[in-house]
Amino acid sequence: MQTLDGYSRRPMERRTSHFSSIAFVLFYLSLMQIQTVYAVKQFEDLSLDELANIVVVGASKYEQKQSEVAAAVRVITHNDIRTYGWRTLTEVLASLPGIYATYEHQYDYLGTRGLGLPGDYNTRVLVTVNGNRINEATYDQGATGRDFPLDLDLIERIEFFPGPGSAVYGQNAMLGVVNIITRSGSDLQGIELSGAYQTAESMTQERVSIGKQFNNGVNALVSVSGLQARGRDFFFDYGATGISGVARGMDGENVKQVFARVTRGPLAFDFIYGDRKKEDPTAAYFSDPLVPGQWQKDRRLHTQLQYNDNLANNTLNVLGRLFLGYFDWQSPLYFDGEKTVFTGPSNWHGAELRLLSTVLANHKLMLGVEYQNNNRIRQTAKNAVHPEENITVDSSVLRIGVYIQDEWRISDTLSATLGLRYDYNGWIGSRLSPRGAVIWQATPKTIFRALYGRAHRSPNSYERDYDDGFTQVANTGLRSESIDTLELVADYLPQPNMNLRATVYAWNLNKLITLGIDPDSGLTQYQQTRKKVLARGVELSLNQTWDWGARLRSSYGIQHVEQQGAQLPNSPYHLGKLNVSIPIPLMTALRAGYELQYYGKRKTLDGSFTNGYFLSNLHLTSDVRRIKGVRASLGIYNLFDENYQHPAADTNWQNSLSQLGRTVRFRLDYRF
Amino acid sequence: MNRQSSLARFFRLVFQAGNQIRQVKHELKYSSCILLCASLFPGFAVTAMADPATEYRIKTAFLYNFAHYTEWPGSFNDNFNLCFYGNHPFGAYLDHLREKQVQGHAVLIRETSDIGALHDCQLVFVGRNRMVDLKEIIESVAGKPILIVSDNPGTIQPGIMLNMDLTKEGKIGFEADLGVARKNGLNFSSQLLRIAKNMRNE
């Protein structure tokens, strides 16, 4: 007997296992289904007339329209990345409303909605790749610079959900969630070679990717990338040391990355490895100025095995994943001529199961459980001259989260989302993160959203446990930070190709973790401040595409963040973004992408301000069609050679840090 | 379906099958556990593994028929490349097409989000979420004999040759734009055009 079900065609294995039992049951359950009219035939064997007369069951409620999403999500595609020539995730995200970057010559930091405390290691934005958390287990750092372990060329799509995401994603999703979806083997279907050279930093970049979809359904992508930069010679003032000078040959960088993704049917396996070493010209952590051989090295490994399938007539989506990760940070620094090597490795693993059901009419119900075991977090400092000062701090923490969410379609024009997540970990105890949203399609062209959410983050192991007895003492009493956000969003689409959006938001951050002084020892210690951080902001954006191929994305944001009446450091009032891409007339397949950004002045730690500045980037891409498979691009970054500064952190000698001037990158891709 | 009779049939069937293999008892132990669960959630477990006439199951069959009833100029090099651009909800239903042939060529399913990779496809399905890229897709494959299919609700978009839609009666219908197809060297057979709800021929 033949059924429509693919399972029954497979030969049964003659062994005793639970699986064979299950298979048996499924086999017979499927046999019971053969009462349908088309049982002995496949649908493909029917005539067009017959097909056109079938009344379909459970018409897909699955595809979610953008207008129904309970967040003002922003999407950036592979094509956008190519068009604008973005080199890091930071640059990609900085094109979005309300986001600003800070670079202190070691790491990139994302400022979001006015919060970008210098040196906070991106702990308040959650970064995921195919749903797998990139924020590691020692510092909770959501890497977005060159330490982000995935080559941007391998990204299919980036979704940015501004605002609180803890009701689904748990900790760290305080000011936004960056969700990255990678490309797969069938996107390449061949070999891609890429090489680039960039001036100023004297940087070379190369990538080899192989992708294929096999006839048996296996879809595989393997890619290796590298980056080598000599870096720039910057002039630095080393503050209190009285030393200043040009840091020559101390800005070098080296990146190696490996990515593999293999999928078959509902199963997917991801392997992401990144190794990045960055020399430090700033003498961070008050190390000895102008001494070569001081650097930061980050190694990251993120793997996961994912199962994602639709069952029960497409009314149930099951997502299960197992993940395993490793992070290692290493940094040799010199203090008074003595070398100390710091490390911060951590291991974690975990699992998540998420069920999404649309079986109830007008409801999309989601239920999930997540478990993560940060089973080894080790922070060490080793001094070769005084080994008695060596320290090793070991810690571990287990996190459990359970979440539920319902998207309820009240009427054709009104829907609501309610969600709640419960988190527990031994450091902070229990946390509840609720979320609520109402979405009203007022007219066919107008959508209003009102959103509320609470989000949190647990202190990271560095803030909580690191204790070397002479610079910092531990604070195991640290609890979590939490943020409450209220947001109103109005979308207006006067034409199908035009979208105007206005967002008004307010957030309050409680129990902010900052560096303070321990009254007992007089040493620095991470502490929780009672001073609430309050923010109010407005974002306006306009997106438009034209029939002749031009695209425009623009936004203006005003954000006001204060703590007890004082403006927060590294928080610009004004942010303006403009991205235009146009096909060059008369030259087919040549496209120009131009980016203009305005960053308002930012307060530094000493109370002064860095100047506001305009940043322009121009990027040209071309498909050289005559030579099949060749693609060339030329990017000019900081086109007008603007000299600008970013505020420095409380671990720097400097109060502000100079940024790169104009750089030119030429890139050639070949595909066969 | 009557649950009682299903149960009885199930036990009988399991028993018969069990006799054919060794260690029936062990099998039954787990089977009955699962049976219990299955009968508690008939809507879930019972229909989950069958192949009912869901929207995308039927649309999968339509795709196959579209390929069958379209004439391509000349012959293809190797496989019949059936490409899906962007995310699409067909999922595992596409397995039904993997062993099929179109005009003597084995069907090769390709899923891509790279417009540059579409040039050697015979059929491109453009997912709803990627209709924004339609203009770019059409430019890049202009003049090539590539059948462009979508399932955009409402009217057929310029450049799309066949567009599937769910009718008010819950059936799958489609519109055809013969003008665009012919411009690219494709032709639809009369069987296909007879079923099409709307046919443009400019």
Largest sheet of chain A: 24 strands, antiparallel
What's the shape of chain B? globular
User: What is the chains' assembly state?
Assistant: heterodimer
Please write the string of helix (H) and strand (E) elements of chain B.
HHHHEEHEEEHEEEHEHE
Q: What is the CATH fold-level name of the largest domain in chain A?
A: Maltoporin, Chain A
The CATH superfamily of the largest domain in chain A turns out to be: TonB-dependent receptor, beta-barrel domain
* Shape estimate of chain A: globular
Q: What is the count of β-strands of chain A?
A: 39
Percent helix of chain A: under 10%
Number of domains of chain A: 2
Please estimate the helix content of chain B: 25-40%
Give the gist of this structure.
Chain A contains seven helices and 39 strands. The model of chain A is unreliable at 1-40 and 59-67 (pLDDT under 50). Chain A: It is found in: Cell outer membrane.
Describe the 3D structure.
The complex is a heterodimer of chains A (672) and B (202). Chain A is mainly β and 672 residues long. Chain A folds into two domains: 6-51, no CATH class; 66-671, Beta Barrel (Maltoporin, Chain A). Helices cover 6% and strands 53% of the residues of chain A. Chain A has seven helices and 39 strands. Chain A has a 24-stranded antiparallel sheet that branches. In chain A, a hairpin with a 5-residue loop joins strand 28 (533-545) and strand 29 (551-563). The radius of gyration of chain A is 26 Å and the shape is globular. The relative contact order of chain A is 0.12. The model of chain A is unreliable at 1-40 and 59-67 (pLDDT under 50). With 202 residues, chain B is α/β, with parallel strands linked by helices. Chain B has two domains: 3-48; 55-200, 3-Layer(aba) Sandwich (Rossmann fold). Chain B is 40% helix and 21% strand. In chain B, strands 3-4-2-5-6-7-8-10 form an eight-stranded mixed sheet. A two-stranded antiparallel sheet of chain B has the order 1-9. In chain B, helix 6 (134-141) links the parallel strand 5 (123-126) and strand 6. In chain B, helix 1 (3-20) runs antiparallel to helix 2 (24-40). The longest helix of chain B is centred in the N-terminal third of the chain and has 18 residues, at 3-20. Chain B starts with a helix and ends with a strand. The interface between A and B is large, with 73 and 75 residues.
